[in-house]
Amino acid sequence: MPHRVTLIPGDGVGPELTEAARRVIDASGARIEWEVEEAGLAVMEREGTPLPARVLDSIRRNKVALKGPITTPRGGGIRSVNVALRKELDLYACLRPCKHYLGVRSRFAGVDLVVVRENTEDLYAGVEFAEGSEEAGQIIALSGGKIRPDAAISIKPISAFGSARIVEFAFEYALNNGRRKVTAVAKDNIMKATDGLFFRTAREVAKRHEGRVEYDEWLVDAMCMQLVQKPELYDVLVMPNLYGDILSDLCAGLVGGLGVAPGANIGEEIAVFEAIHGSAPKYAGQNKVNPTALILSGVLMLRHLGEAAAADRVEHAVAAVIAEGKHVTYDLKPTRDDPTAVGTREMADAIIAGMALL
Ligand code: NAD
After folding, report:
1. CA-closest residue to ligand 1 atom 26
2. Does the active-site annotation cover 150?
3. If I label 210, which of 78, 266, 281, 325 is the partner at 20 to 30 A Cα–Cα?
4. Following DSSP, what letter does each residue of 43-73 receive, concatenated?
5. DSSP E strands: which ranges in the chain?
6. What is the pLDDT of residue 77?
7. Tens of pLDDT along 59-109?
8. Ligand 1: nearest atom to the Cα of 17
9. Which residues does residue 264 pair with via DSSP β-bridges, in sequence order?
10. End-to-end Cα distance, the chain
């Protein structure tokens, strides 16, 4: 039986990248039936919303989606499709493997980390009060003089449920993917209530996995220094939303940046796979940007679907093309104006040709 997967091309460079990823996945040996659903800016103009119900219905039905990046214009008006998808589908875990591939220019070699970020709580919960508002005034009154009267306030909710769920996810991921250690990251010496709860909950979850996966804890500031000094000591990192947002970009930087960094947003039943990078509008339609991040997101998707052999085939072919350094996009060449750089489509062609040789 083929797997049915919702394919969201996105906008900007999204359509050319999803096309490249789709062709590579179709050549991997896995049988996928794609259900293409448009979302984003152009859809907003046609249908009045950037995320029509039919897109959500398709993902709910198929349980798995591969998504191109979608532009969120700055300033008010249009809500972010990316945030809406995570909220509507309760995709509580953001998974970002950061693995260095030979041939990608980076200050570090051999890095192989996975960042697991809680996606629904923390300062990103969207509970905010403007300076001078009645609600801000009430909280300021409660604070016993700790908050200035002209402060704007963002609330940081961290729940026992949300913490247990994300740490459990990290341990399950470690167990299912042959990982040896989970490191919890927060800042409980300062935020004793919220981050204290996160660490206490993490310890309880860790106890249930004792003997199978190691567990340790770091304060987020010290973790940043550790990661740039000794990234090889770490394996799976799990943390609340804000720290996860920052550290996942830091770790992507350790392995060569946006062009090669895949990701996934995962819930109890549904998973949406997408690159970390955005829609890079200035390159749209130019057949120029690197398809690797979206193709590697496809590799995560294939593993999620139980297609391990197909996933390995794609990953090995991607690694070989990058290591050879010939049929790669401009960002993987020694200089950005290298005339031997190939386009998005041609890099995908090289990966497909590489798979045929495996
Ligand atoms: P961006 O990631 O789109 O691009 C920043 C720069 O990174 C590009 O100009 C390019 O130089 C480089 N880059 C990005 N992807 C690349 C690739 N595949 N290959 C080679 N180089 C690449 O970030 P931005 O400019 O801040 O955001 C553009 C839009 O994308 C915004 O509207 C933003 O909201 C949106 N965005 C969407 C998502 C998503 O859909 N998940 C994620 C991030 C940003």
Report:
1. 278
2. no
3. 266
4. HHHHHSSSS-HHHHHHHHHHSEEEE------
5. 3-8, 32-36, 64-67, 93-99, 112-118, 128-129, 153-154, 181-186, 214-219, 236-239, 262-266, 271-275
6. 64
7. 999 999 999 999 988 766 667 888 889 989 999 999 999 999 999 999 888
8. 18
9. 95, 273
10. 24
